[in-house]
Amino acid sequence: MIIYKVSERGQISIPAAARRKLGIKPKSKVEVEIGKQEIIIRPLRTIGEVKGIFRKYAKGKEQDWESVRAKTERKVAQEAAHD
């Protein structure tokens, strides 16, 4: 654990190693969740960062959007069940 001092403006810096590990780059967006005694910071991914995530489910097949969406949802659900 590393202890940081909060600046006069209420700011802290995210350590470089944590930014690299989580893929947080300049101008990245993060979600801040406030608990009872903690603050959780999670990186948010943009559409551009995840644009190819579903490509493997379509594999070049020409299908209508509803078919691709339904197949993708089934595959994602199957993979999530195995994690």
Summarize the structure.
The protein has 83 residues and is of the alpha+beta class. The protein has four helices and two strands. It has two domains: 1-47, Pemi-like Protein 1, Chain: D; 52-82.
Please write the CATH class name of the largest domain: Mainly Beta
Q: Order of strands side by side in the largest beta sheet?
A: 1-2
CATH topology group of the largest domain: Pemi-like Protein 1, Chain: D
The Rg value, from CA coordinates, equals: 19 Å
Q: In this structure, how is the largest beta sheet organized?
A: 2 strands, antiparallel
Enumerate how many helices there are, as a single number. Answer: 4
- Which residue ranges are poorly predicted, with pLDDT under 50 across at least 5 consecutive positions? none
**Count of structural domains:** 2
**Tell me, what's the shape?**
elongated
Structural class: alpha+beta
SSE pattern = HEEHHH
Mind telling me which CATH architecture of the largest domain this is? Ribbon
Structure, explained:
It is a single chain. This protein is an alpha+beta fold. The protein has 2 domains: 1-47, Pemi-like Protein 1, Chain: D, CATH 2.10.260; 52-82. Helix content is 40%, strand content 12%. It is built from 4 helices and 2 strands. The chain has helices spanning 16-22, 47-50, 55-58, 65-82, and strands at 30-34, 39-43. The radius of gyration is 19 Å and the shape is elongated.
